[in-house]
Amino acid sequence: MRFMFAAILFCGCSREQTKPQPQMREYNWPIMGTTANLILADDGVDAEKAVGIAKEALEEVNSKLSVFVPTSDASKLNANLGCDYTTYHSFEMIIRSFYFNKITDGAFNPMVAPLVELWGFHRGGEKYDFPPPAEAVSNTLKRCGIEMLHMEHDIYGDDEGNTWCENTIFISAGGRIDFGAIAKGYAVDVAYEELRIAGCTNFLMNLGGNMRASGTREWKIAVRNPLKGVDDEPLEHITLTNGMAVATSGGYEQFHERDGVRYCHIIDPRTGYPAQGVEQVTVIANDAMTADALSTACFVLGAEASKKALAECGASALFVVKNPDGSLRLERIGDFW
User: Fold this and answer.
1) Given this model, what pLDDT does residue 22 score?
2) Would you give the distance in Å from CA 200 to the centre of its chain?
3) I need a labelling partner for 42 at 20 to 30 A (CA). Which of 133, 163, 178, 246 fits?
4) How far apart are CA 185 and CA 249, in angstroms?
5) pLDDT cut 70: percent of the chain above it
């Protein structure tokens, strides 16, 4: 998933509070194919330690979940090296991926990687004719069902009455997994929890636009207008408070255009073709992983069909749809508004 927020603005804890606010300290570094951004608003926090904690958390998640890391769990799965997976991160991703696939009626699917490659959006992927022939799409779609992903539970015990479970995860031949629509949000949550454990209170953790806020401060986020540049007037402002997270999916940064038709990088895993009908979706949720996964799924589903999944997760969404005359229409779903 690719997206960008136009800007991040900051405001105080409340209008009534007159106590001087701590000075913002902002730190940026590259990771997971994008930029991580940690903004600290606590005077008493050791910034160097906080940044170190965030970096370590993101690096750990990336090392286990990225398909671009040859030794990651995801890469091992794609190489059909079915084995015992005791890594918490990969196990959590598999469990949550099944969950989001179920509540979105298949619109979220980490097994969509072969289709993403077929349409030419996968880094390092092979070159295909564009747009790909219908037969190629149909054949590739057969290798992208969630049923290609398997998890087996084996229960073991010893003579002393101790028992334990080992989980074997593997993919059927021809299938490939990619956690790109959920891993960044999950990584933000991991960093968020580690920072909180370390005593950081007021901060904003941001990974390529996947954000989660902490503390008493309000964080004002400017949502990009999908028809304009990142430095232009934003489309909307939202305010995040303690624990809230946000993510946006849009088709305006990665796309192919042929004969006046724009094909975005977000593939509908149910049809095998790029999703259409929505320009942008911003999801506000109680954690960054949920916001990340639902922003992609809701982009595929559209506003009306997204209501069930959003309600299931207690999330809200802002849909941006282009009218026939080229103007934009906003559709808001959920209690946040």
Assistant:
1) 64
2) 24
3) 246
4) 12
5) 87
Nearest by Cα to 61 from 180, 209, 168: 180
**CA neighbor of 144 nearest in space, from 66, 76, 78:** 78
Run of H or E including 108: none
Average pLDDT over residues 1-16: 40
Q: DSSP states of 44-72 as a string? A: TS-HHHHHHHHHHHHHHHHHHH-TTSTTS
Element (H, E) at 269: none
Q: 153-173 burial string, b = 16+ CB within 10 Å, else e?
A: eeeeeeeeeeeeeebebbbee
Task: List, for residues 66-97, the tens digit of each pLDDT value.
Answer: 999 999 999 999 987 655 555 789 889 999 99
d(CA 209, CA 223): 10
* Nearest in space to 243 (alpha carbons), one of 206, 282, 216, 283: 216
pTM of the model: 0.89
Crossing angle (nearest 10°) for helices 88-103 and 303-313 = 130
Joined together, the tokens standing for residue 220 give: 């004002």
Task: Specify the pLDDT at position 123.
Answer: 55
Q: How far is CA 133 from the centre of its chain?
A: 29
